[in-house]
Design brief:
Two copies of one chain form a homodimer.
Chain A lengths: L1 E7 L2 E8 L2 E5 L1 E3 L1 E2 L9 H6 L5 E3 L1 H6 L3 H6 L2 H6 L5 E3 L3 H6 L3 E5 L2 E5 L6 E4 L1 H11 L3 E3 L11 H21 L6 E6 L5 H13 L5 E3 L8 H11 L9 E3 L5 H9 L4 E3 L2 H7 L2 E4 L2 E4 L19 H5 L2 H9 L3 H27 L3 H11 L5 H22 L1
Parallel strand pairs in A: 4-15, 5-6, 6-7, 7-11, 11-12, 12-13, 13-14, 14-15
Antiparallel strand pairs in A: 1-2, 2-3, 8-9, 9-10, 16-17
Amino acid sequence: MFTLKCTDGLARAGILHTEHGDVPTPAFMPVATQGSVKTLDSTDVSDLGASIVLSNTYHMYLRPGVEIVEKFGGLHGFMGWDAPILTDSGGFQGFSLEHLRDVTDDGLIFKSHFDGTLHDFSPENVIDHQERLGADIIMVLDICPPAGSADIQLDKAVELTSKWAVRSLNAHSRSGQELFGIVQGGLSKAHREKSADFITSLGFPGYAIGGVSVGESKSNTYDVVEFTVPMLPEGSPRYLMGVGSPEDLVESVALGIDMFDCVLPTRIARNGSLLVNSGRMNVDKSKYSNFEGPIETDCNCYTCTNHSVAYLHHLFRTKELLAYRLATIHNLSYVLRLMKDIRESVLSGTFEQYRAKFHSRFIPPDEETRRIQKRKWLISRKRIREQLK
Amino acid sequence: MFTLKCTDGLARAGILHTEHGDVPTPAFMPVATQGSVKTLDSTDVSDLGASIVLSNTYHMYLRPGVEIVEKFGGLHGFMGWDAPILTDSGGFQGFSLEHLRDVTDDGLIFKSHFDGTLHDFSPENVIDHQERLGADIIMVLDICPPAGSADIQLDKAVELTSKWAVRSLNAHSRSGQELFGIVQGGLSKAHREKSADFITSLGFPGYAIGGVSVGESKSNTYDVVEFTVPMLPEGSPRYLMGVGSPEDLVESVALGIDMFDCVLPTRIARNGSLLVNSGRMNVDKSKYSNFEGPIETDCNCYTCTNHSVAYLHHLFRTKELLAYRLATIHNLSYVLRLMKDIRESVLSGTFEQYRAKFHSRFIPPDEETRRIQKRKWLISRKRIREQLK
């Protein structure tokens, strides 16, 4: 299902073949959590140049329910999206939404975030849900240990992830739908090795690196990616789950990653944080009330073509719903263009020049923002760590 | 500025000529309260077929401020809207937002709804604000007496509205911008007559009927329109302020009205109430979770072309921002198409057939909804009535 077209250093350009069309890689997957990339519909996302989207099994399972999506021809029919789709297993949300109630050898029990009902995900029923949702690529149920997990927790996470991978493979039968394996193991090279050895021995058509977007620092994330990528087969696509800031995309491609998903570009857009070559523009700030011209002069997105920064500032200040849409369009357009440029640079053997140029302009988000984000993660992970003991 | 093309009974079809282009009438003006028709940008509104929009002086004066809008080339430049714009005087919001503090012979004092600061609107400064906002059509400051006002309150409202009309005319100097007069007088024919006599004697290029969207019943509204329209000159456009449900549009055109504005289609859209030939579809209801097909089979709007009712239901249930946009697109498209069909029927001399067909399909919203709406209005009007005593 994957053709590796070209490498440049460790960076790769390829094509992912699916029933709903080809995906040029490296690829960023916008996240349609509940069947909509927030503020956008499928035509909008297609117009932005996305060739694949991700949707969350956890959310679609709870609402509208797998039966309804299935009745409408799966996610493709329900969302009106004709191109490739990937669904995650739902396990990550079961953990991350702080509604995890129990983890057993057979799966996990969680409380619905909106009506409080209890549900369980097992390796088998998660495959069933995803088969009925009908995505082109689906994921095994795994255990994603939180940042800072001790060895004993990593042992258990790797062990269960391995067992569940076998059960997932056995449960999967729908043709025209590829099941990817997931490598876990936290920051520990030994655990990643153990996990990768086992998971790759099962012969999945693609492999994900999980557990790096759970509050780890950027340098830790890059370390894990750096030592885990060589453990994965060269001929298969490599998917780094939950990563997607511009700087992380560039650095992860440099380490050999092919696929990404992340809510960051769309989430920060709704907070008025716009992606620009030099980092982030917080359009809500007073200094932008008067600002003529677009967000980024070299951006040809709909928002930059049609609207001034001052207008966006006004829309954010007055909480007009249009603000969130225009900001989302810009940020997604920014990331998708970045991926396209990265791919072209790999194909032309100039990736390192591209990467250097990117970093020469880029000022990373300030440490305070990072610290707040991390603290939030650590708190939400506390409960999960308890469950894994 | 107005060409009356054709009449059919009392119904009229005409063309409003402005510096930013022609507006075929009868016309509905979508409301861009804060410089955006909620959830949409100017290209969206243009794509829906609107030829003119209304923006609120009160809101734009408070945020972003007249200076900023002026710097960006007025509302046209700031919003990126090249077609005609009408601004109201701001007086209605000063009243209706329950922030009215005082009414004097010189204008009104109100408290900003978002930061609590005090501001005053006078006939003169409201003209200045509107000249700088740069709309094609602007409105005089008037007194809009609440539903159920006693004669003594109507006396005062008509008297001040008359005085202020003269002051507004004297203050207005910007060329290429037409100033409309407003007739007030509540439900009283005598007061309407007095107001109309005076206002029309001043020779405005267009006339509005104000004070009918302030909690009056539909039959009262129709009565007022019926006896007020003949008091207005035939050659000038007649604008019924704040009215815009489909049934009211049809009935008011039948009485000789040419222009309308109303937040109803966009506001109810955001509550999941969709305009259909038979009345309203509350898409949030459980029975729609499974509903295949579009909102209305004969609707060619973007939403109906691309999405099922079940998908919309899901988006509303999960509070996805996309829901509000798709519903807004449908409702505005519905109303704008209605106006186009009405106009065509007038031009072809078949308006009464069109009107009969409209009503044969239509089931009015239930009385309970109406009662709730009315109660809200009455409460918010209590304070205003005090001020007018």
